Amino acid sequence: MFIFLSRRILTFLTDSTIPLWVGIFYAILLGAAVLCQTLFLQAYFHRQFVVGLRFRSAITGLVYRKVGFVFLFLIQIRFMYYLELTIIEYS
């Protein structure tokens, strides 16, 4: 979609016979496409974050349910490794 719009906008900028309303339409269409992409990506990242939190909670429950306090230190090291896999860092 963005490739199509960028080609059309470049054509509009180079050809002076195209009316102004076409350029305005392309600009509005590009803004709507960016807005839709932002909304879809936000929903995707939110869902991935929730899945990561659920996975983290499930692993925590499994560790503390299955293991007594004898092997807790050894399993906590592995547990921290799994926690690092589920953390989503935003920059």
Summarize the structure.
This protein is mostly helical. The chain is built from three helices and no strands.
Keywords:
single chain; 91 residues; mainly alpha; 3 helices; rod-shaped
What does it look like?
This protein has 91 residues and is an all-alpha fold. The protein has one domain (2-86). It contains 3 helices and no strands. The chain has helices at 2-14, 20-66, 72-86. The longest helix is centred in the middle third of the chain and has 47 residues, at 20-66. It is rod-shaped, with a radius of gyration of 25 Å. The two termini are 27 Å apart. The model has no long low-confidence stretch (mean pLDDT 82).
Q: Can you lay out the helices and strands and say which pair or pack?
A:
Elements: H1 2-14, H2 20-66, H3 72-86
Helix pairs in contact: 1-2, 2-3
Binned, the helix content reads over 70%
Beta percentage is under 5%
Count of DSSP-assigned helices: 3
Distance between the termini: 27 Å
Structural class: mainly alpha
Largest beta-sheet characterization = none
Mean pLDDT: 82
Rg calculated over all Cα atoms: 25 Å
Low-confidence parts: none
